[in-house]
Task: structure prediction
Amino acid sequence: MAGKFQFDLISPEKIVFSAEVEEVNIPGSEGYFSVLAGHMPLMTRAVPGSVHIRKSAGEAVQFIIFGGLIEVKTDKTSLLAESAVPLARLDKQDIERRIAHARNLLKDVRTEDSRSRLEEFIYHMSAIKSAEIGG
Amino acid sequence: MASLKDLRDRIASVKATQKITRAMQMVAAAKLRRAQEAVVAARPYSARLEDVLADIPVNPAKADMPALMRGRGRDKVQLAVICTADRGLCGGFNMQIVRHARAFLRARLSEGKQVKIITIGKKGAEMLKREFGALFIDSVNVSRYKNAGFEQARAIAEDIVKRYDQQEFDVCTLFYSEFKSVINQQPQAQQLIPCGQGFETGGGGRAAGEEQAGKATQPAGSAPAFYEFEPDIADVLADLVLRLLSARIFRALLENAAGEMGAKMTAMDNATRNAGTMIDSLSITYNRRRQARITTELIEIIAGAEAL
Result:
């Protein structure tokens, strides 16, 4: 199988995940994409969604992130996420709270830029809500 | 002269105070441990972000660099964000930060610059209000939250960015205290905006934290990674900057929380010890006085007996 590379998932509070992995599937702002060993350097924004991490064949972990920054270097990849929770510990109320908070912010944004960003956030959060929790 | 009863009361009251300071010390020690862990755990995130920033090739001519990084090329209006603790009883912790900030503010004012102040934490606001009251534009109250949370730091960062967009200031400097060890907290000034490297303007750059200074001296061409940006560099950088500001404020809050507890622990330890010394010396006076009285009484009795 393909080579491995270092992958770190870091939230402001702590290092959530750090290990050698084979493949990571990340929700980028331009859509989901996969990183394998030897990926070209890339920097992009992450949107709320789920991160699939495959450590080796048959050994996978999944996290839900609420946006972040992805930095891909040839030898290692970092995902700096605002918050990351393991799929199993996903809390429906927490998601609803975040969506409500974003809706609130949406009421008094002025720039077109931040408006579209908030709308994007709400859109992706709703997608998580319906996909992972069902409701 | 104080009577024996007065002395007894005094000793009892000092003992009661000692009990309180000892309890406060233990509480601070427990909180310190948690705060310290939080600081250590939070370091990788901000460190990685600073690394990313250092990796981005800086090109002042390029318009795709957000104004937050580039600055506006002037430093007429200065914003000082001053983080302190909400409570006293922690030695010189708050005073250190305030003194550092005050020196900065006075220097800027004497240069004829306009200064605005945002305080985070009650103590700093109280201490600075007398001298700089007219310059306050906001006081953020963080005591509603038990622990400093990233979301809160982000809200503060968003507020600062909003003010920047509304042309309220040109340069923003963050004051906090770095947690070096339990007995050593170093007041810091870190330039928040503009945050791109090589754009330090005015005093902010000079006073910037050691870490910053260390990075800035790195040779400009130290193998920057050539990234592909998606969808484009402006989009990514705009996001990065907000994240970076939030991370820096978050870090300042955490460092402050740990420093406050460290300082409180030390201060309360000293207070407990002082109370101990005081009790000792009061007890000695009390015992002497008591003995003196017994002796006097005995002499009186003996003298009375002899007179018979």
